[in-house]
Amino acid sequence: MSGGMVDMVNDFRCLLCGITDTPHLVQARVTGDTGGNLRAVRCPDCSHVQLSPPTYDLDLYRHDGQVNFVVEQYGTPIETLFEHSAIEAGRRVARFAVHSAPIVRFDGGRARLLDVGGGYGFFGSAMTRLRPDVETLVLEPSAGRVETGRRYFTTRADCDVPAPAFEIGLPDDAFVTKNRNRYDIVTLWHVLEHVDDPMALMARAGALVRPDGGSLWIEVPNLHDDLAELSPAYRHRSFMREHVSYFSADILERMARTLFPQARVEVSGYQRYGIFNYCHWIQHNAPQGAKPDMFERDRWWLETSWRTAREAARTSDALLLVVRFGDELGAGA
């Protein structure tokens, strides 16, 4: 995933190391860039891949540009996206146990979890249902997404999908000052790639974590997803105007070790989408679209072995960074 030097790129500045030398071209076309002004490029010094210029527009997120693209271009019903979001939220809750992350406090009080950029609130809902012993808060910058989420949960009136607690806002300096060291776990599920200063956001998120046993969980799309080499359409779709940064496992680990030199850092692969969707991209150069297979009912042996292999090689569609602060409290959630 490399190319020559970039043309038509003005005033390049790496979002991680700040270098301004001419970057290397990674992708000349960016999905959603109707003006043709964006390029995906690699920093010649630290190898970080980002858009140039790295223009972040919060309105793209507030207006659900990424969700609307999937609905309009691939024909996936919004209800299916919500259903799959709920499935993925349950998997994320289970991942605490997989990674031996206890969610308890030294003082025996109720543990606190903050989900930054929690969108419609599906993960917060799953935590509320599956871990009622944990005080969960969704911090979400889009009032529209919060309203959509609340309406969805209220309309269903289903005890299996309770509405979580929301707060509309950003993890900015004011929020950190008010809530420093408050949370046992802070999560950012597919948030870091959207911002124009990922180092600052990671640092602020870490400052919110309790230093004596808390942990920070960050999931991002994987730059080295092997499907990008097998499907040209998937590769093109991977670079989009909503994603400012594209992280490899090495870059993600380097960021965390730079910011938190005393913490324990782990970067592992995580596969979100199923094997049939993977094969459909390869065979048809397109996703499954209206009926993507999430493998919740059968054939799980096939899915499990395939996921395990991709995650171990870190060629999965996502990466999971876990940063652990202070002394561990034991194994299991």
Please give a structural write-up:
The longest helix has 21 residues. The two termini are 38 Å apart. It contains twelve helices and eleven strands. A seven-stranded mixed sheet has the order 6-5-4-7-8-11-10, sandwiched between helices. The chain has 333 residues and is an alpha/beta fold.
The ordered H/E elements are EEEHHHEHEHEHEHEHHEHEHHE
SS element count, helices? 12
Radius of gyration: 19 Å
Assembly of the depicted chains? single chain
Describe the biggest sheet? 7 strands, mixed
Number of strands: 11
Q: State the separation between the terminal residues, measured CA to CA.
A: 38 Å
| Averaged pLDDT | 87
- Percent in strands: 15-25%
Q: In which range does the helix fraction lie?
A: 25-40%
Write down the overall geometry: globular
Report low-confidence residues grouped into runs of 5 or more. Answer: 329-333
Which strand order do you get reading across the main beta sheet? 6-5-4-7-8-11-10
